[in-house]
């Protein structure tokens, strides 16, 4: 069996699908993307393609090593996302060839259903309460929201009050019938992170995500010492070789690798196993499309330490397309009380609607996150 073709399709809202064809007619799908840099990742995919074209798709481990080590330079958001999408398609093909879901190839189920959470609010975290009420009607009780808008390295008491008031109203309204994580989104620098974590502690969030940027990971153990809130991070780390420093230093309780950013299933199942050895929970990052989510679920269902799965149904980024728009088996993705069952179909478990993907790719927008600035005109973290 040989890989004969790799095609990429950039589609709304901000995703990219990869289609891998074989000489035996079996097709695999992946989702390699960095949000806002889809074209760059697309170029990287086609630069990596010669490592796998004409090769046996069942030799995933060898192909992964060839892509990672073969080009001398490695790692980082772009290259590891390109590898991720190719890797996902390889696992999809292997599962389809053998007629089993990928989790069977990884040792089989460790749980019967996986807990997910839903985003509420948006970039400007205002109308959280109304959004939570709507989702609760659908049985969802676990949420994530942005903790603050832009926050300066040293900011005002009024800004802190606003951030705290938003969270306080949730506990006031819903008590302990809901659980939520708070995403600082890298908007908070170390001095204010200490302040905000202390102020938010009484509301007992499930976690605070990216309390500071991953590039300031040396603060994670110090912040963890200063708060009882579990700290989460990982969406901006891209391989075992980055995550190992987080494990060594400590401070992170919930690891959030992204299956479309951090080398795919082959790499993330190893990252998950490393986390388990350090008593660190797993909650894969996934504000992306259905192939990325399916890849996450394959790892969740074989990882004992997986606690929560992010998913993008109704997320504020999904302008122009929704998670299940490109899927012909949406019934397999239905949430029940916020949980999802193992995807039953062979491979990744997604039947991609090829016609829709190809039609949507004809006028895909170039999504970009906004550029925020502080009141003084200087650039703020979004
Ligand atoms: Mg985040």
TrEMBL record:
The record marks 310 as: Transition state stabilizer. It holds the Pfam family MR_MLE_C. HAMAP family: Galacton_dehydrat. Residues 125-230 form the Mandelate racemase/muconate lactonizing enzyme C-terminal domain. Gene3D superfamilies: Enolase-like C-terminal domain, Enolase-like, N-terminal domain. It catalyses: D-galactonate = 2-dehydro-3-deoxy-D-galactonate + H2O. PANTHER family: D-GALACTONATE DEHYDRATASE, D-GALACTONATE DEHYDRATASE-RELATED. SUPFAM superfamilies: Enolase C-terminal domain-like, Enolase N-terminal domain-like. Catalyzes the dehydration of D-galactonate to 2-keto-3-deoxy-D-galactonate. This is D-galactonate dehydratase. GO terms for biological process: amino acid catabolic process; D-galactonate catabolic process. Binds 1 Mg(2+) ion per subunit. The record marks 258 as: Increases basicity of active site His. It comes from the Bacteria. Belongs to the mandelate racemase/muconate lactonizing enzyme family. GalD subfamily. GO terms for molecular function: galactonate dehydratase activity; magnesium ion binding. Reaction proceeds via an anti dehydration. Keywords: Lyase, Magnesium, Metal-binding. Its cofactor is Mg(2+). Mg(2+) binds at residues 183, 209, 235.
């Amino acid at each position: 069996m040989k890989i004969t073709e790799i095609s990429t399709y950039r589609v709304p809202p901000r995703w990219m699908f990869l289609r891998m064809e074989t000489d035996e007619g079996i097709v695999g799908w992946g989702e390699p993307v960095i949000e806002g840099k889809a074209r760059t990742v697309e170029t990287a995919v086609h630069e990596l393609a010669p490592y796998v074209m004409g090769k046996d798709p069942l030799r995933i481990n060898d192909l992964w090593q060839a892509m990672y080590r073969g080009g001398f330079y490695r790692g980082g958001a772009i290259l590891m996302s390109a590898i991720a999408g190719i890797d996902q398609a390889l696992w999809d093909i292997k599962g389809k060839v053998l007629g089993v879901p990928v989790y069977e190839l990884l040792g089989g189920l460790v749980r019967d259903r996986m807990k997910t959470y839903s985003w509420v609010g948006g970039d400007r975290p205002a109308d959280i309460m109304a959004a939570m009420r709507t989702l609760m009607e659908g049985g969802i009780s676990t949420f994530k929201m942005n903790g603050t808008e832009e926050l300066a390295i040293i900011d005002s008491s009024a800004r802190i009050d606003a951030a705290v008031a938003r969270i306080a109203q949730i506990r006031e309204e819903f008590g302990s019938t809901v659980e939520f994580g708070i995403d600082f989104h890298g908007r908070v620098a170390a001095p204010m992170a200490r302040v905000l974590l202390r102020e938010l502690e009484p509301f007992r969030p499930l976690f605070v995500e990216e309390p500071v940027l991953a590039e300031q990971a040396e603060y994670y153990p110090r912040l963890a010492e200063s708060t009882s809130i579990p700290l989460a991070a990982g969406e901006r780390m891209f391989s075992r070789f980055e995550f190992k420093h987080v494990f060594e230093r400590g401070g992170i309780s919930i690891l959030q690798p992204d299956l479309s950013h951090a080398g795919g299933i082959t790499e993330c199942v190893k990252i998950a196993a490393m986390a388990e050895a350090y008593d660190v929970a797993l909650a894969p990052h996934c504000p992306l499309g259905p192939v990325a989510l399916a890849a996450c679920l394959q790892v969740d269902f074989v990882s004992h330490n997986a606690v929560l799965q992010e998913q993008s149904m109704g997320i504020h980024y999904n302008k122009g397309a929704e998670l299940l728009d490109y899927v012909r088996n949406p019934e397999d993705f239905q949430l029940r009380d916020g949980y999802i069952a193992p995807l039953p179909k062979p491979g990744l478990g997604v039947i991609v609607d090829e016609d829709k993907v190809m039609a949507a790719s004809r006028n895909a927008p170039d999504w970009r996150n906004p550029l925020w600035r502080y009141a003084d005109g200087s650039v703020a973290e979004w």
